[in-house]
């Protein structure tokens, strides 16, 4: 029995290593752009690793003997936990290269930029932000349809959503001393208005959706928008933030973390 459990643990690690290698090769070879929809096979790879971690607590169960207590491959659980974290982190980083491309295009309109006057002569329309929102929406639907573990699915979506807000916030922080172009405000304000609706069914807590980073982004864009419209910026202070009127769900950000910890520990 002991030997069988050792063999099972070795097989799980070997399977996960091969799966991770295939996942990394896919990330390296795939060009992430606005037209990309994550293949089902990638979701299958993540399902394999997540399920392996879930089952590892049975494969690595403790057994007592007269003289000692054994725990087979006690490092398997930690290994699988690290693999999942690495896969999520690298995956989100690649997804965010699409947002970085969008922000680099919007940056052409920066105040003081040599090319800004030329770009300002034409109306860029709303195609860029609409295409990006479609990219996010389609891939969120793919995650919901093909990732099996509910808690890990929500964790991936939460991490991606949070990273999007952080990147936009950092982009705005780099331009704290300059006024934004109307097109920049229009593009980012559209993203800030639509993205929370996309994740509302996955992140039921408004404290997570309308977090401090979101409020920072929305506040800056709202002030810039008021300035372009010739409105008083002080009037925007009296306007409520999105999500601030409704009652918050019982599930808070801390409870999300607790749920994730429970999944990690298997309790």
UniProtKB/TrEMBL annotation:
Region Disordered, annotated ranges: 232-267
Acidic residues bias (residue ranges): 245-258
One Pfam family of this chain: MUN
InterPro entries associated with the record: CAPS, MUN_dom
GO biological process: dense core granule exocytosis; synaptic vesicle exocytosis
GO cellular component, one term: presynapse
Domain MUN per the UniProt entry, residue ranges: 1-152
Name recorded for this polypeptide: Dense core granule exocytosis
Organism, scientific name: Desmophyllum pertusum
Biological classification of the source: Eukaryota, Metazoa, Cnidaria, Anthozoa, Hexacorallia
Gene encoding the protein: CADPS2_2
